[in-house]
Amino acid sequence: MKRILKRIFSFTLILVFALSWSSTTFASEPVALDVAYSAMSSKELAYCDIDAVPEKWKEAVLVARDEIIYSESWMVDGYSGYIEDVRTGEVIRTLPSFSELFPNWNLPAHDVVNKEDYSTLSLPFAKDYSLTALDPYKWIRISNPRHYIPAAVSGVIAPAMDTFYVDPYEIGTRVRTYATSLTSSQTCNIGYRNATTGTSLGYATQLGLYEAYVAYDVEEIELEVRVSTDSIPGWGNFEIEGAYRFILVK
After folding, report:
1. Could you tell me what percentage of the chain is helix, strand and coil, using 3-state DSSP and rounding each to the nearest 5?
2. Is residue 90 scored above 80 in pLDDT?
3. What is the mean pLDDT of residues 190-209?
4. Which CATH architecture has domain 73-243?
C-alpha cells in the first residue's frame, strides 16, 4: 500500500512540475520574442514575415520597410518611368517596378491630406497651349515652383510641392519634374503620389540638377509632386512639365 501511495505521490509531483514548467515556458515566449525583435537591425525587421510577427511589432516592420523603400528608385506596377538628362535628352536609367524590388511587400499608403477638386484649377501653361495641338509630344510647363526641400525622414511624407489634375488633353500622359537650382544640397529626391488615394506612384532618389524624373501612362488622376533630400535641407527651383497629349479629332 505504501508503495502504491509513493508512486501516486511521485506521479503527482511530476505532473505538477510539468504543468508548472509548461506554464512558465508559455508565459516567457512573448518576452523572448520581444527580446529577439528588439535585437534586430532595421533591415532585419523589414524582411520579417509581416503575417508572422506579433501584432505589437507590425508597425515597426512597416516603418523599417518604408526606410528601405524610399532609399530606392522605382515605379508602382502598372506605370513606367525613367530618369532623363533634360539638357541632352539622354535616358540615364529606367526605373524598376515596385514588385521587382520588393516582392510580397505592400505599397506604402499615407493619410490623404488634400481633398480639393484639382480638375477645376486654371493651368499656368496656357500661354503655350497654342502649340499643343501642333506638337502633342512637346514638353509644356505645368508649374515652376520655388520650394523648401526638407530632409527625408522615414515614415514621414514631405509636403506637396504641387498638386494638379492630369488632363491627358491639356497636360498629357507623361509628367516630368527636375531641379534647376539647389541652395544647400547637391541632389534631391522626387516622389509622385495619388492625392485621392494617398498611394505612392513612384519615387526617385539622388537626382542632380536637370535630371528629370519622368513618369508616363499617368492620366486622369490628381497628382502630388513631393521633394526631399538625404543631405542638407534648403531651397530649390523646379520645373514640372507635361507631354504626350491626346488630340481631339473633329
Report:
1. 30, 30, 40
2. yes
3. 95
4. Sandwich (2.60)
